From TrEMBL:
Gene3D superfamilies found in the cross-reference section: Ribulose bisphosphate carboxylase, large subunit, C-terminal domain
Name by which UniProt lists this protein: RuBisCO large subunit C-terminal-like domain-containing protein
Transmembrane segments: none
InterPro entries: RuBisCO_lsu_C, RuBisCO_lsu_C_sf
Ribulose bisphosphate carboxylase large subunit C-terminal domain span: 11-87
Domain of life: Bacteria
Signal peptide range in chain numbering: none
Amino acid sequence: MFKTLFRGGEILPVVSSGQWGGQAFETYKRTQTTDLLYMAGGGILAHPMGPKAGVNALQQAWEGAVKGLSIEETASNHKEFAASVKKFSK
């Protein structure tokens, strides 16, 4: 789901509902920005290696997306993100 919030006349995109790091790649491709709210509570708290790894996996995913890497390339470089891919991808 893609929503917007208004703050001081600016629009801040809000991405929520079932988010995990794997969606960062398409989100970045479409928005070309990291200036957004990316609400991935389940993607963090349900991470198989625990919430700290969930946060790390999310950061790794966004880093890979911004660098233009694929999900597979990013997963091969980061064990936390790889665990997310295994659990959350369809």
